[in-house]
Amino acid sequence: MEIDFASIVAKNQSMVFSLALRFLRNREIAEELAQDVFLQCYRQIDKIEDAGHACSWLRRAICHRSIDELRKRRFRPAIGLDDIPEPAAVGGMPDLMMRDRLRGLVSDLPEKARMVVVLRYQEDLSPTEIGEMLEMPVSTVKSHLHRSLALLRGRLEKRGRARVANGGDIPATEVCL
């Protein structure tokens, strides 16, 4: 069966770019990595079995490439904009301050834990799927999720208490993930 590369790109380009952008928080690098991953996919198109396999392959490739890129950037830091606006979600009025706080806290997580959180809550993958993709045991994925969420909750509560003590915006008891 012949796989149509154009349809693979059309169906998966937003997912590939979005994963890289949320993980790296740099639009230019995310675009570059997404292009590289699609080029790599094109070169290996004969190994792709079907559309589902292509999606899984692309997701795995962009995750690993994003982690590698972040590690490289530690040794060659780039000066750029960290707060890139993202398209607004459909629905009611979001709490923009909470969203920005959460993004900042998630970006402070270690690479593997951050990728696990992004895959779980952005891509809505199960721990089993994440484990397969990142080649780690499901128990490790669950451990990353548990520790990351506990850490994020603790940091949000700590910031909430500091704001209340300073006459700020929200009490720590109203902060939740």
Description:
The protein has seven helices and no strands. The protein has two domains: 69 residues, Rna Polymerase Sigma Factor, Chain: A, CATH 1.10.1740; 77 residues, Winged helix-like DNA-binding domain superfamily/Winged helix DNA-binding domain (Arc Repressor Mutant, subunit A), CATH 1.10.10. Helix 1 runs antiparallel to helix 2, helix 5 crosses helix 7 and helix 6 packs across helix 7. By secondary structure, the chain is an all-alpha fold.
Features:
disordered C terminus; Arc Repressor Mutant, subunit A; mainly alpha; globular; 177 residues; 2 domains; Rna Polymerase Sigma Factor, Chain: A
Report a brief summary of the structure:
Helix 6 (127-134) crosses helix 7. This protein has 7 helices and no strands. It has helices at residues 5-24, 27-43, 51-75, 96-107, 111-121, 127-134, 138-165.
